[in-house]
Specification:
The protein has 159 residues and is mainly β. The chain contains one helix and twelve strands; from the N terminus they run αββββββββββββ. Helix content is 12%, strand content 52%. The radius of gyration is 17 Å and the shape is flat.
Length: 159
């Protein structure tokens, strides 16, 4: 069971990474600022359209953010120094809209994954213990919990 969980986690990270490979056009790594949810170039105060990239001191990718007319529009991805994904969120016109995946800072395993629709949690979400085992399944509708099932560390239902 653990091997299957590890394989699924690895497959998920590969899929996320492969989707991330298409966001390299119009990459911007200069100075920018954020004001009221919009991102601007420091040099000319114009709204940014493209991808902002930041790097770890070691040189590895730390952060990528897709922008359109200054708004988050596409993927926002943070990376560990190892290159693994810390978190991934998708946006449409500055609003969370799409996948949301978060990894534990120490174990680098997924601890939460789900979906946003127009800024609200929607559909099935899964939360995991630090060891990668399923902790809770939650179903949301317009940011409200409609169903929740919790599991103990052995995988037994506890509610």
């Amino acid at each position: 069971m653990r091997k299957i969980s590890m394989k699924l986690t690895m497959i998920l990270f590969i899929i996320i990474f492969s989707f991330g490979c298409d966001i390299k056009s119009n990459v911007y790594s200069g100075e920018y600022y954020e004001n009221d949810g919009k991102y601007y170039y420091v040099s000319n105060n114009k709204l940014i359209t493209g991808v902002i990239s930041k790097y770890h001191p070691s040189g590895g990718l730390h952060y990528e953010l897709e922008l359109k007319n200054g708004f988050k529009d596409g993927k926002e991805v943070h990376y560990f120094t190892t290159g693994n994904i810390i978190d991934l969120k998708e946006y449409k016109k500055g609003v969370l809209n799409g996948r949301s995946i978060e990894a534990h800072i120490l174990s680098q395993r997924i601890i939460e994954k789900g979906y946003y629709l127009n800024g609200k949690k929607s559909g099935k979400w899964e939360l995991y213990y630090d060891n990668g085992k399923l902790k809770e399944k939650i179903t949301y509708k317009k940011n409200k919990v409609v169903k929740s099932t919790k599991f103990n560390m052995n995988g037994d239902i506890i509610n």
